[in-house]
Amino acid sequence: MPTIRIPTPLRPYSGNNASVSVSGNDVSTALNDLTQQYPDLRQHLFENGELRSFVNIYLNQEDVRYLDGPETAVGENDTLMIIPSIAGG
Questions:
Q1: How many CB atoms lie within 10 A of CB 52?
Q2: What is the pTM of this model?
Q3: Of 57, 54, 61, residue with least CA distance to 85
Q4: CATH number for position 64
């Protein structure tokens, strides 16, 4: 099963898990499985059904925006990372 690594600020919404095994053969279905397991994560990752603009998803160190986006294929041993952007000034 693919694994999704959860960043520290979102761990309270994932049962304090640093990583979660998910099912799915692409990024979209893997994230959907994650939010079905942990519904409180949905509001932090999605807005109006779309991934929030400040949430970046990496597949094995590659930004999925530069691959096939949500349709990027995910393999059995792949790792997805959720990386929220941080802004300040």
A1: 14
A2: 0.91
A3: 54
A4: 3.10.20.30
Residue 12 lies in a domain: yes
Give how far Cα 80 sits from Cα of 9, 22, 30, 37, 73, Å.
16, 10, 9, 16, 11
Q: Hey, what are 48's tokens?
A: 């109006």
**Residue with structure tokens 């919404």?**
13
- What is the H or E stretch that residue 67 is in? none
| Chain position carrying tokens 């509001």 | 43
SS3 state of residue 48: coil
Q: For the segment 32-87, what is each residue's pLDDT rounded down to a tens digit?
A: 999 999 999 999 999 998 999 999 999 999 999 999 999 999 999 999 999 998 76
